[in-house]
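User: Hey, quick favor. My workstation is busy. Could you predict this chain's structure for me?
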Amino acid sequence: MRRKFNDRSKLKALAIILLLSFLASAQSNPKSGSAPQTKQERKAQAKLDRAGRDEQPVAVAEAGATSTSRLALPFKRAWLYLTDEASTVPPASDASRIYLPLTGGRIVCLDREAGSLLWSSEPGGIIVSSIAVGTNSIFLATRKVTDDGTEEGGTLRALDKATGLTLWLKDYERPFTSPLDLAGDRIYAGSADGSLYALDSNNGGVIWTVETQGVVEGRALVTDNAIYFGSDDGALRAIERASGKVIWKHQASGKIVGRPASDEHAVYFGGGDGYVYSVDIATGKLRWRARTGAAIEASPVLTGDRVLVASFDNFVYALSRATGGRIWKRRLENRITSAPLIEGDASLVAPLRGDYVAVFLNSDGRRVNLYQLDKEFEIVADPIFSNETLVLATNKGLVVATATRPATNAPSAVKK
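Assistant: No problem, here it is.
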């Protein structure tokens, strides 16, 4: 009888523990961002509130895979900013703010920690590329169109970071088509007219241009010694920073969209022909090339002795920097157009139109983390990760999650 009584007591205690755990989970809610801006956004937010869903910070690692990277920590959603104007232009951020472009030409500035709306600006035109963030200003390129959709050129604007007010603007005959790169007092941008522009960040004045035979879509790599950029004409060019004079040109067989990467020996880039290239940094001569299964638009990234690159064949490849030999590859469920984000011994990959991000070991490609979005949320632009905060632009707005560290108990005092 005593054993039966003990078993019943244990079952009763277990039931109470489970009930308390359920109630605590039901009462916890993710922090909200600013109030939704439209009727549709308010409905979507209300639906989420009624559902009372809260993501659990659970890391999903493959057997035996461990990492010291912050990317391997479980992600927990911190806040949402819902909108029916989601844009495929990536957001930008600094230490305290996130700048989110929207399809209607509006840009909203959000508090990075709480998600509250700081300001909103409608500069006019269609935002065509990612925003460059300076010390006191942000810079954005827009495309001007008439009421019937005809292009009327492009505009570059500088906005005050604190207020969103326009500080200056300058018009150009054709719109810019590449992400803006801010280096010192210059902005480098590719144009629909087939040129790379060096612009004065104080007023948008043209310092020099380098002409190509195709649209310049990819962001330039600016180093102390030179600037490297690709074009739709399939050529990678190295040019002098001061004058824009071409140092060398390497001709590939497919357009070059991603930003190149470099070390002291070589420049690495991917092409629309499905190859990853390594060329000598001084001469532009081919060192090696390695084939993937489809076009490459993502920028290659360097880590240790290898190059990581994502291809339209849904694979992420790790290649040897020295030879281009394949070390490992991993297949995901969607196309990958964004460069892997590297932190420590791991890298995060965000597939386009996927509802998750995955984190892999740089050494062998084993997965050490997986963050799943809510149903119907899909990633539409490049992710951001800094200061243990993950920023994801989705078809329904912005999702911001934080890497959660395990709770640590203070050591108990030792009695003497």
